[in-house]
User: What shape does this take?
Amino acid sequence: MVLADFPLSICGRSLTLDDIEMIRQIIASDPSATREQISRDICRAWSWFKPDGGLKNMSCKVLLLRLHRSGLITLPEPRKSNGNGRKFSRRTEQGKAREKIAGPVQSLLPLELQRVVSKKDSFLWNELIDRYHYLGYTPLPGAQVRYLINSPAGYLCAIGFSAAAWKVAPRDAWIGWSTERRVQNLHLVVDNSRFLIL
Assistant: This one.
């Protein structure tokens, strides 16, 4: 990147040369800091928060990685692999296909919308998506929430929602918002990343 590229826009944040220098100083201030710590420190320095008050940490980590890959900053080596790029291969008895369920929905009541919060449920959700969804399993981007729909007959559905993509021309044209309005209100939009009826 060259001087003419500034200000840069990454993850909805406009970056100046001063911002790059501040990031470099934060990285240099603690040679033992992890990428996670650096990201959190930068979020605090910028007062970069999500609408719920939490740090905008995932966006900051993506921003830092892009700057690192472009050569503008040098991040410390990652301490552990995040598993991105590895094929999901977990297979369990619980994830195996069951007998076909047929009949009116009333026969499946009560249905339970079960938010995925435990590791066990997370592994099951990932496995079901990987086995039976046409897109397979990949980690959902940014903020996310996942659900399993359960019934007396067993699990019926796996649904996942994630943070909206920064720019999607057809979506943005349909909504009719300006760039400024999109930046202000994008947190009100979610992506239905996966919808699987087993």
